[in-house]
Amino acid sequence: MTSYLLIESGSDREAGDPAGLRELAAGLSRRGHDVVLFLLQNAVLIGPAGPPVDELLRSGVQIWVDELSLAARAPGAASGPDGVRIAGMPELVRRLMTPGVRPVWH
Amino acid sequence: MALTGGPATVERRLFLGLIGTPYASDLLTSAVRIAEEAVRQGHRVTVWTCGYATALTTAAVGPSAPRNLAAWDTRHPSPAALVRHLLAWADGELEWLVCRFCAEERGTTEQLPGVRVRPSYEFMLRADAADVSLVLGVK
Question: Is B133 helix (H, G, I), strand (E, B) or coil?
């Protein structure tokens, strides 16, 4: 089993392929890997592209949402859907610097 | 940005590549937040800028960002001031490097004191030497 930290920085409306990263996260998790999908910057405005949040959670993906990015874009949204964790830089960096974790920025 | 000390952990080396157009998104903010937190957690950080990210720390950049007409009395630090502050706070645990090839191409070789211009081949050397490498940007 490999541990991954997939950091998504863009929303569905921007260039890139956030849906592809979410599909990758779900696929890795279904194959038994330990996957954290960290939503940062505009990615906190997660949209309909790709697997929906509940499907990602069912597949075992841990979804972390950056607190500061969320506060800047959705004031008052102190929490996300059940199973989604509001996190900050301390949690992101601890995961990033953990030996064996493979990080990907997207 | 709160710059205070924190508990030390097993020191590892983090390489952050900052590529592309930093003002198109919150890319710089994210890079600085990650770098600051990594130093706070006891790690050593190298930030390597390529492309127009090399312009963030040019010597000609003033201490404040242009003021917002709608909030004229509010001042925000410029990216250069932010990096200068971060370098001073990190006290040697963070280095901010600029790709010479990208800087020469864009006329940004005159950099702030403490920011070093390095040959482009060092990108791979430094990324490979780090325990963790993360490239933020468009490439």
Answer: strand
